[in-house]
Amino acid sequence: MPQPNHSSPYPFVYLASQSPRRQELLGQLGVRFELLLPRPDEDAEALEAERDGESAQVYVQRVCVAKAEAARARLVAGSHATAPILVADTTVSIDGAILGKPDDVEHAVEMLARLAGRDHEVFTALAVVDADGALLPPALSRSTVRFAAAPLDALRRYATTGEPLGKAGAYGIQGRAAEFVEHIEGSYSGIMGLPLFETAALLRQARVDF
């Protein structure tokens, strides 16, 4: 792919995420992208380790910046065309606790039972490394989601679909979990994992053409 000169916009962005939802949302904006995923020798899970006493808001921004720095190093080390890099990280919080990705179905049921009948917060942090390698000021999307009260067997049926695995808070709002979502306040796309308003603003700042 030809490299644009510094006076022209960049025709694509590198997306440092395996999430199909983020890929779908970038497509919704009309943004062309290429994946820039961790190498086999990278310990991507270590970047998501929580620190004692860390709030969800601080955690998600720290992890997002760490992933952006790892992606920048990945780009420099490889034979890649010049373009900005987009990174995002999402977490769920209730009662001050961070709900990450469930370990298995039973763990997912425990998380969902904790959310049922209550409000919780969803934070998605965004970071863009511009084509010169500079990290732009990160953005943060904060939304509130209210789950309706639900019987345990309904939560278990959902958990056994496999959809909650690999998702923060053990649910995907764009999938079958929508049956539990009574109300949201904030950004629907942010809850999915890529707040489009903030994404568009950062990509324009990085001179991505879309």
Textual characterization of the structure:
It is a single chain. The chain has 210 residues and is of the alpha/beta class. It has one domain (13-205): Maf protein (Alpha-Beta Complex). It is built from seven helices and seven strands. The chain has helices at 20-29, 44-47, 56-77, 105-115, 152-159, 188-192, 196-205, and strands at residues 13-15, 33-35, 85-94, 97-99, 119-129, 139-147, 181-185. Strands 1, 2, 3, 4, 5, 6 and 7 form a seven-stranded mixed beta sheet that branches. A hairpin with a 2-residue loop joins strand 3 and strand 4. Helix 4 (105-115) crosses helix 5 (152-159). Residues 1-5 have low confidence and may be disordered.
Q: What distinguishing features does this structure have?
A:
Maf protein; 7 strands; 210 residues; single chain; 7 helices; EC 3.6.1.9; seven-stranded mixed sheet; 21% strand; alpha/beta
